[in-house]
Design goal:
about 325 residues, Helicase, Ruva Protein, domain 3, single chain, 2 domains, five-stranded parallel sheet
Length: about 325
């Protein structure tokens, strides 16, 4: 006799039927794609509405990451795969140590999809995966429905350890929402195909994590202006990008930039400060170390304060009273 498996009915707007797409299966391909695109267009405005909460998460991450803490993503299914993608892209893009942003999901790389999907119901597994979390860390749970047991277990375990906890979901009243410090709720509404949260809800999670990690890297001094200056030049394309960034940031010619970059042992930030201020690589490197890697701060220090640092105010978290002005 086949064992009867438990059934859970998820009461969430992400599971609801979308009245705009009820006839989608009767349409020609171009019209199907048009309807899907119409639904996708609703995602960015929904993410914008959640930016105040996302900013709170970023500000908390700046403090904790700056103090040596780790960022953890927990998610299952599509959510887990999006977390893995974001964490994997940070080391080559911003030279982040691989262990500083870690993505967790049920199972492992070698597990099949069925095993991974089934294990999202395992709350205790989430707790076990959160054993490495400390009070210095920040933990983000990713679940469109706001209820995934694996994510719940991880967030509860993380909160018990004193970590800062964040939930990213598309459900305002999800059962996990009351457990976290910040709930980034993105109102994506019903999917074009009912319950297929790999669509709008998944896109929203990708945008939220893109915004979270990129804003965090900017606040940590991983950029100068809108240029990536902590990129790891591990292949020929990236080495060309580093050279182009140096040219664009300084206005110096390619030969000069290549020479200073060699003298700086390939360190883009060191070469950048050297070219902009006219100091040797050793002095530039020391200034960057004192400035916690922020290029503008290093330039200001080497210029005896003549060059104002426009990020100084942004690097200080405003008080609640200031936020209300």
């Amino acid at each position: 006799m086949t064992e009867e498996l438990p059934v859970v009915r998820v009461e969430s707007v992400t599971e609801a039927r979308n009245p705009r797409t009820v006839d989608i299966d009767t349409l020609p391909t171009l019209d199907i794609l048009g309807l899907l695109n119409d639904e996708d267009a609703l995602v960015a405005p929904a993410v914008r509405a959640a930016l105040p909460q996302l900013a709170e998460a970023v500000d908390a991450a700046v403090v904790r990451f700056g103090n040596g803490g780790t960022i953890h993503y927990f998610g299952a299914g599509t959510s887990g795969r999006i977390g893995v993608l974001d964490a994997a892209e940070l080391p080559p893009t911003f030279s982040v140590e691989p262990h500083r942003v870690v993505a967790h999901r049920p199972g492992g790389v070698g597990d099949d999809v069925d095993a991974l999907e089934a294990s999202e119901d395992d709350e205790e597994l989430g707790r076990r995966h959160a054993e490495a979390v400390t009070s210095e860390d920040l933990v983000i749970g990713l679940t469109a429905s706001g209820r995934t047991p694996y994510v719940r277990g991880a967030l509860e375990a993380a909160a018990a350890k004193g970590a800062y906890t964040v939930l990213v979901s598309s459900r305002p009243d999800g059962p996990i929402a009351d457990l976290v410090d910040v709930h980034v709720f993105v109102d994506t509404g019903p999917e074009a195909i009912a319950g297929s949260t790999r669509l709008k809800a998944g896109t929203a999670q990708k945008l939220v994590l893109n915004g979270f990690s990129t804003a965090l890297m900017i606040r940590l001094g991983k950029t100068y202006s809108n240029l990536m200056v902590d990129v790891r030049a591990s292949n020929s394309k990236l080495r060309g990008r580093v050279l182009r960034i140096l040219e664009e940031a300084t206005g110096a010619d390619e030969q000069t930039c290549a020479r200073v970059l060699r003298e700086s042992d390939g360190e883009l930030k060191t070469a950048l400060v050297s070219l902009l201020v006219g100091t040797d690589p050793a002095a530039s490197r020391d200034a960057l170390k004192t400035a916690d890697g922020h290029v503008r701060r290093a330039i200001a220090a080497l210029s005896d304060g003549d060059l104002q640092d426009p990020t100084a105010q942004a690097d200080r978290n405003p008080t609640r009273e200031e936020k209300g002005r």
